[in-house]
Task: inverse folding
């Protein structure tokens, strides 16, 4: 858990520097905080998209896991991507919840409408 606290503090420092002085570019912020430029760029981009610093709600959120399981029980044909976008989390989190819950979701496949003659022709 200490790792996540340190990452959150680092994100706060990066965003605070960015908000305090918007003339600073990513390279300058990276040098000031002695961090990799790609980390600074990623955190600034994420902040611009979401307008908050915290991580997306992940697998540690038990309420999220319950809601994901309920959505699959209601509609087992949903894709992991659709569920992830609905709950604002990642596809990996949705997949982890499905595996842990033992859910095996299969898409409903349409059975071809064939009579005996069409079945024979289809096999040949």
Result:
């Amino acid at each position: 858990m200490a790792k996540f606290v340190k990452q959150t503090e680092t994100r706060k420092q990066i965003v605070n520097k960015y908000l305090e002085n918007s003339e600073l570019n990513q390279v300058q912020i990276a040098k000031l905080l002695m961090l990799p430029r790609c980390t600074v760029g990623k955190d600034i981009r994420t902040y611009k998209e979401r307008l908050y610093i915290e991580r997306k709600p992940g697998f540690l959120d038990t309420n999220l896991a319950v809601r994901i399981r309920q959505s699959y029980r209601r509609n087992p044909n949903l894709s992991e991507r659709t569920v992830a976008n609905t709950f604002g989390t990642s596809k990996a989190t949705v997949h982890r919840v499905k595996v842990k819950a033992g859910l095996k979701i299969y898409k409903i496949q349409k059975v071809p409408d064939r009579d005996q003659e069409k079945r024979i022709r289809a096999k040949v």
About this structure: The mean pLDDT is 85. Residues 62-101 form one domain. Helices lie at 2-20, 26-33, 37-50, 62-74, 80-87, 91-101, 116-123. The chain is about 65% helix and 0% strand.
